[in-house]
Amino acid sequence: MLLIDGHCVLCNGLAGFLRARQPAGRALHIVAIESEEGRAIIESFSPRHQQMDTVYYRRNGRVHVRSAAAVRLLLTMRWYHAMWFPFAWLVPLPLRDGVYWVVSKLRHRLGRV
Description:
By secondary structure, this protein is of the alpha+beta class. The chain contains 7 helices and 4 strands; from the N terminus they run βαβααββαααα.
């Protein structure tokens, strides 16, 4: 399950990109953080995760945030996208999260839904 900012053009674009690349028979459940369902799901997270303003990806009972969520989303896509997971995971976390932070701060300049 992926939780995204429902008002963000970039986040909604990501959702469309992911939906178009899902393997047959598998569908990623995508929920807006602002929705009632999204707020209820976030309330079930640890207090540390509840305070974050980020993308959330819940897989196998674990919550992944920021760049870790983005990289793990590769595993939800068809094999020719999923094969990039090990390479993306090799990028050091501080560098990945740094890029994620810059994009997250600039995303609303692209527009709002």
